[in-house]
Specification:
The chain is α+β, with helices and mostly antiparallel strands. It has 10 helices and 35 strands. β11, α9 and β12 form a beta-alpha-beta unit. The structure holds beta-L-fucopyranose. The site of beta-L-fucopyranose has 5 residues, from loops.
Length: 682
């Protein structure tokens, strides 16, 4: 090289930065760094509520009720492991106060239950099972205790500390300790049966409670609405937010504060402390097992959506298993979680960015090169030059690639930085928009339409410091080929929808099986006659078809009316399964608008989370004109309590215009409720 070039080159080298980037505070503690890698772990809700069939026990339950018939904590651990989870958290004590270990400080415990003749310790069995399967162990403990006579008094705080000490010392290392913020006030409280309101901010003396956990389990993450280490995401749907900061104004929040979800849960750009989000959600509507929710397991599309909206939006994901009265995760739930695991694996099977050429508009040279975003090592990352918050990183795949997912990870150990970015693709030499976003954080996954491009680039537009990007991934997730949803409006408009856009739907109305390529669905159609709709979703590209969805559609309800002065009564015939009407008179009188040859009716019990007023025994009457009534059927909806699915009442065909469904008895004695009524004419 000629001296002239050398002269030109040397100063450039000298100015290239090799010093590490300075942190942008707040930054995670070492325990938070260890925890963030877990990302996905499970919850086990199993305790007295499993046996009292409640979500929040009152505290007056008896230890004798706790009687699982086939409990096997190893099954829970095996399922979690197979589902790709890294840890499990168990409800050691829920709001009803019953404890799963033989605590020396209460009689309200497994030690007085029939399970293992009172010699069992479920925390022990749980911990042993988790260790066997290589899972980290977490414990949920409800501060609110509706059983304890001293709840609300200083003595209870001593009790709580004693119990925490047992849990924190006797079971080895814990990765997370979960303090629930819920507190409803009323309870049994040793027989007092009263409302006890505590000041949630001061009563538990949180600083000293946290200090106790720190002292006995220095590596454990402390969870509550407000952290201090990991915070509640603010809803129980499992969704974080498109803008999710791990920074939190921690001193402004406390567990159980009313405005938390709306105001604080998404974190704040200028938050003072590092308190990342954890999205908790149950695989069924309830946290605890109820046979009446057996038909309400989340579907694969729903679970997948949760995955993308939590882990894909800078949050960890905590999915709950409601363990049943046998003490096992039901087969259906096992199947559902393993299907999710398989789909996630499929979506991220191959990182198409591997081997791509990576360049950036900015660099600090040695040790922080752009190529490190593809090295699979979280601790090596690309850093833009100091203070350069607006910068670009570009991937050239070398040839056109088809993809629909982009995964970006910030190196958050030095603080979460990016607050605005766009993604572009290059098509025929022009850069075109592909996606945009605000925060990235530990992991951000962007779902983009199926795209073909040889080059993509991420433009960082705004950040709190130079961006530090540790990994980039580009994936081609196969479409989710899942049986479609068939709905019909009250006027007869039938819609068939696939979980993933861009797939084909084929259907039949004549009872024959739907076939790919024959009778394609493209938009909602009017169907006023009774028919059986059967439909499949087809991914022509992959040559895959879904299982068949089938729906029996009978009379349209456009001219129907529930005869009641209560305007809410029409909710029972609105074709919406999740709305319902409560009838104080325990009866629903229906006008079908015109006389029809009726062969039966259907009754869907209310489907809301906390059911009430399911009809157990009924009488059905009919009339052609509204004045001459006759009994059509009388009977029992057997097992409706445990299985509140659509019930059928059939009778000898009659010309009728009016029907009356009367509740002779409801399951819980409450006023009868009606989710949806339908006609059977076929
Ligand atoms: C809530 C509790 O009230 C629920 O019962 C459940 O344990 C959930 C995880 O947290 O605050």
């Amino acid at each position: 090289m000629r001296p002239f070039f050398l002269l030109f080159f040397l100063p450039v080298l000298a100015f290239a930065q090799t010093t590490p980037p300075t942190p942008v505070y707040p930054i995670p503690e070492p325990r938070q760094i260890a925890w963030q890698e877990l990302q996905y772990y499970g919850f086990v809700h199993f305790n007295m509520n499993t046996f009292s069939d409640r979500e929040w026990g009152f505290g007056d339950e008896k230890p004798s009720q706790f009687a699982p018939s086939a409990l096997d904590a190893r099954q829970w651990a095996r399922v979690a492991k197979e589902a790709g989870m890294k840890g499990l958290i168990i409800t050691a004590k829920h709001h009803d106060g019953f404890v799963l270990w033989p605590s020396a400080y209460t009689e309200h415990s497994v030690k007085n239950s029939p399970w293992r003749d009172g010699k069992g310790d479920l925390i022990r069995e749980f911990v042993d099972a988790c260790r066997e399967y290589g899972l980290k162990v977490g414990i949920y403990y409800s501060p609110w205790d509706r059983n304890h006579p001293d709840y609300g008094k200083p003595e209870y705080i001593t009790y709580m500390r004693n119990q925490l000490t047992e849990l924190l010392t006797n079971y080895g290392e814990l990765f997370e300790f979960w303090f629930d913020g819920a507190n409803g006030g009323s309870g049994w409280y040793g027989g007092a049966n009263e409302e006890r309101v505590v000041d949630k901010l001061t009563y538990y003396d949180w600083p000293s409670m946290h200090a106790l956990v720190r002292e006995l389990q220095p590596g454990a993450m402390l969870f509550s609405d407000a952290g201090p280490d990991v915070r509640w995401v603010g809803n129980e749907h499992g969704f974080a937010y498109p803008t999710t900061w791990s920074n939190l104004m921690r001193d402004s929040v406390y567990a159980g504060m009313p405005e938390y979800s709306d105001k604080w849960a998404m974190g704040q750009e200028n938050g003072t402390h590092w308190v990342p989000a954890e999205a908790d959600v149950s695989i069924r509507p309830g946290w605890y097992y109820h046979a009446y929710e057996d038909h309400k397991l989340k579907t694969l599309p729903e679970l997948l959506e949760i995955y993308y909206q939590s882990i894909g939006q800078n949050s960890s994901l905590l999915i709950n298993f409601p363990v049943d009265t046998r003490g096992l995760i039901p087969d259906s739930d096992v199947k559902a979680i393993l299907e999710l695991a398989a789909k996630v694996k499929e979506d991220f099977a191959v990182n198409l960015a591997t081997g791509a050429k990576v360049t950036s508009s900015s660099s600090r040279a040695a040790g922080y090169e752009a190529s490190q975003v593809l090295d699979g090592n979280y601790d090596s990352y690309w850093a833009a030059a100091t203070g350069e918050t607006s910068t670009t990183i570009e991937l050239d795949f070398g040839k056109p690639r088809s993809f629909n997912r982009i995964l970006v990870q910030e190196y958050v150990n030095l603080g979460q930085r990016v607050s605005a970015f766009t993604v572009e693709k290059e098509v025929e030499g022009k850069w075109l928009p592909l996606a945009q976003g605000t925060t990235i954080g530990y992991t951000r996954i962007l779902r983009v339409p199926d795209t073909q491009a040889q080059k993509i680039r991420i433009n960082f537009l705004e950040a709190k410091g130079e961006p530090l990007i540790t990994e980039l991934g580009v994936y081609a997730a196969p479409a989710l080929v899942f049986p479609p949803k068939i709905t019909r409006s009250t006027v007869g408009l039938v819609s068939i929808t696939a979980a993933d856009p861009g797939l084909e739907i084929y259907y039949t109305l004549d009872g024959s099986l739907p076939l790919a390529g024959k009778n394609r669905y493209d938009k909602p159609f009017l169907l006023e006659q009774p028919a059986t709709v059967q439909a499949i979703v087809v991914d022509a590209k992959e040559g895959k078809s879904s299982a068949i969805s089938r729906r029996e559609l009978d009379l349209v309800k456009g001219n129907w009316k529930v005869l009641s002065s209560d305007s809410k009564a029409q909710a029972a015939i609105d074709e919406q399964a999740n709305t319902y009407w409560t009838s104080p008179a325990g009866m629903l009188e229906l006008d079908l608008g015109t006389e029809v040859l009726l062969k039966g009716i259907t009754y869907l019990p209310m489907q809301a989370r906390y059911p009430s007023g399911f009809i157990a025994d009924y009488v059905l009457e009919g009339s052609p004109n509204g004045s001459n009534w006759q009994e059509l059927s009388r009977g029992e909806f057997a097992n409706i309590q445990n299985s509140p699915v659509e019930q059928l009442i059939r009778f000898a065909p009659q010309q009728l215009r009016y029907v009356r469904l009367k509740a002779v008895r409801t399951v819980d004695g409450n006023a009868a409720t009606f989710g949806e009524l339908g006609a059977i004419t076929r």
